[in-house]
Amino acid sequence: KAGVTQTPRYLIKTRGQQVTLSCSPISGHRSVSWYQQTPGQGLQFLFEYFSETQRNKGNFPGRFSGRQFSNSRSEMNVSTLELGDSALYLCASSPGPSFYEQYFGPGTRLTVT
Amino acid sequence: GESVGLHLPTLSVQEGDNSIINCAYSNSASDYFIWYKQESGKGPQFIIDIRSNMDKRQGQRVTVLLNKTVKHLSLQIAATQPGDSAVYFCAERGNQGGKLIFGQGTELSVKP
C-alpha cells in the first residue's frame, strides 16, 4: 500500500504571497491532519479533517486554512506568508478520526524569503 | 495548559544495548499516546501506540510503558541498532480527542 504523499516536497515563496500544499492519504484512510514543524516550536498541530469536515483546529491564525475533498485528499493554504511560516509542513492520515494509527508523509519544506 | 515534555534531549547508547526514552505528560485526561521516530529529512514514522486503559504494549523490539500515576511514558528499544538512530517523539491525544500534542523529541545516537 502506498504511503502518504505530499506535493510539492520543496517550495520557496516570498513574504506576502500565498501557498497551497497538497496531501494524498493512504488508500482507505479518511482522516487527514496537518502539522507544522520548526526547530524552535517542534511539531504543532494545525488541523484535522475527517469526511470533508474539519474536526479540530490548533492555535494558528486564520491565515492557515485547509480543506478535504470527497476522495480524502487534502490541501492546506497559507495566505499572506510571513518569514516565520518557514517550516516543514507534515500531513498525516489515519483510518478514522482522533489520530488512531496515524501515519505521516515526508512533508513539504516551505521557505519564505 | 497541556504539555508533553521529554526528560532527556539526547541519548547515546552502544549498539546491542537496550535504550529507554522517557516522556512526561501533564494532562491526566489524555487517553491515547503514540511514539514516533523521525530520521533526518523524513516525516515521523509510527512506532507504537498505547491507550490509557493499558500499562504496557509490545511491538517488534519495542515496548511502551504507561504509568498514569506519575504521568510518565517510556519507549524501550531492545538490542539497539545503528538504524535506530533518530529523533523520537512522544505524542498525547488531549482529552475529548481534541488534538495531538507532541513532545520536543529525544535524539538517540547509537554507537557501533
Tell me what the structure shows:
- The complex is a heterodimer of chains A (about 110) and B (about 110).
- Chain A has about 110 residues and is an all-beta fold.
- Chain A has strands spanning about 5, 10-15, 20-25, 30-40, 40-50, 55, 65-70, 75-80, 85-95, 105, 110.
- In chain A, strands 2, 4, 5, 6, 9, 10 and 11 form a seven-stranded mixed β-sheet that branches. Chain A has a four-stranded antiparallel β-sheet with strand order 1-3-8-7, with no helix packed on it.
- Chain A is globular.
- Chain B is mainly β and about 110 residues long.
- Chain B contains no helices and eleven strands.
- In chain B, β7 (about 60-65) and β8 form a beta hairpin.
- Chain B is globular.
- Classes of the chains: A mainly beta (about 110), B mainly beta (about 110).
- At the A-B interface, β5 and β10 of A face β4, β5, β9 and β10 of B.
Keywords:
heterodimer, A: 113 residues, mainly beta, seven-stranded mixed sheet, four-stranded antiparallel sheet, 11 strands, 53% strand, B: 112 residues, six-stranded mixed sheet, five-stranded antiparallel sheet, globular
SS content category of chain B: mainly beta
Order of H and E elements of chain A:
EEEEEEEEEEE
Helix content of chain A: under 10%
Provide the gyration radius of chain A in Å: 13 Å
Q: H/E series of chain B, N to C?
A: EEEEEEEEEEE
Summarize the largest interface: chains and residue counts: A-B, 23 and 21 residues
Distance separating the two termini of chain B: 41 Å
Form type of chain B:
globular
Query: What is the number of helices of chain A?
Result: 0
Q: Please, how many helices of chain B? A: 0
Structural class of chain A: mainly beta
- The beta-strand count of chain B equals 11
Q: What share of the residues of chain B lie within helices?
A: under 10%
Strand content of chain A: over 45%
The major sheet of chain A is characterized as: 7 strands, mixed
Percent of residues in beta strands of chain B: over 45%
pLDDT below 50 for ≥5 consecutive residues: which ranges of chain A?
A: none
Low-confidence stretches of chain B: none
Shape of chain A: globular
